[in-house]
Amino acid sequence: MAVHEILAATNAVVTLDVAIPGTVWPWLVTVNMWAKSIGTGVIFMLFLLLRKHPEQAASLRFPTTVVSIIFIHIFLLFTLADLHQPFRMWHIFFYPHLNSAITIGAWMATLFVGLLFLLAFLSFIKKDNVAFDKTLTWVTILAIPVTLYTAALMSQCTARELWQMPTESAQMILAALLSGSAFMILLGGSKLGYEAKKTLGVVLGLSAFMSFTLYMAEYIFGPMKAEEVAAVLEYIKGDGPYTVMFWLGQWVAYLLPMLFILLSRASKSESILKLAAIFALAGLWLVKHVWLMIPQLLPMS
Amino acid sequence: MQLGFLVDLHLCMGCKGCEIACKVENEVPLSTWRLRVKYVDVGTFPETRRTFTPLRCNHCENAPCERICPVSALHYLENGIVNIDKERCIGCAGCVMACPYGAIYIDPQTQTADKCTYCAHRVASSMMPACVVACPVQANIFGDLDDPMSNISKYITKNQGNIQVRKPEKGTNPHHYYVGGGNVTLNPLASHRIEGHSLFNNITTLPVGGHH
After folding, report:
1. Do B93 and A228 touch (CB under 8 A)?
2. For the segment B180-192, what is each residue's pLDDT rounded down to a tens digit?
3. Does CATH place domain B3-194 in 3.30.70.20?
4. ipTM for the complex shown
């Protein structure tokens, strides 16, 4: 029986209860996820470009590393800012609970930051491209679980039925590919030729398409699986409080960039490609925010 | 020993004595609750009735809060109680997000997670939890689930077929049972929660931990 049918059948109303908690994980967590997507995504893209367009990408080794360091630190800063006891962050390293995705993620992110600084050292101080490329392979491999651990964390939230592990992990990796390719299109400037940017455009377009498909699949089929998912998705349907933001996000992050990429390929326009990249980066924040907020609106008790 | 709780909803009259006793015993700050009694009105006038449901931590055997806690601030005691070490908690609120029963809150004074501990400090001194003592109709039954002669085990045996837990589909195996519960009392999605309409105030949500 669907939620609205139960409500109609019981005609039950909560007449006295305590105030239930508001948002538990606020916009700070959205920034956390958004920045991490860019921080790991640019590493994926650098790895790809160094194989497909090594000459053009050669000069991007250091700038990309710097971008990754900046965005991973934004991710870490906002993670810290969201803690109610930020000065106890060190407990994660001294009292670790290894069943928790938060612990594993914090450890991996710390190692990732260390390796990023090593990349910066190899590219800027030592100027050793061979060592850089060898290290980059390991950094790229580590970037995968660093990207995915938030999906594991969301899936450990038993209360939030909307966040299921296979889908969230796919969304996280696609978000990294989308934002990484978008950022590299902008970062490439005159260093990357049109062909390299076209490659990035393909990654951007395909990840946008896959992400959009997943969201639509959840939007349509999610309510058929679980009562709680149906109730949560009501917040992005009809007059729901997040309906406008959800569709704005889908258009800005996915649909318009896909359209712009097609247009840029037809007209061989780099400007339109850059527009797609800017839209994708801005839209990704909206999409992530909506998906973070809506399960928190549902009363748990 | 595995301690558990059972509430006989046939007996509960919604006096909120347990709620107050819990607040006093554990010095639970304003705007937060370890235990609360929810009133839900059912039906259409004149065919109406009011239900009362005490809600607290379920001390799950497979507790999502314990699993997600990055620093083991939430941990099991040998007697099955899911306890919390507030000195260790970093306030990530992962447990608040993970608990399917909405039983965990961020203490606005300490900025750490907190919840019902079945009055572990009283239990350690062979006393009953404060809410059990306060209940005027003995609707709260507390004891060792492993001991077939305990009150709770006898109650469960006597009421077989009419024992419920909240959200069994979550696979958390709660050590908190209800007798006489139903969809309206145990499923939060089975009742309207009208924004700003309550018997004594119009506050429906409060910021977690006093901010954010």
Report:
1. no
2. 999 999 999 999 8
3. yes
4. 0.92
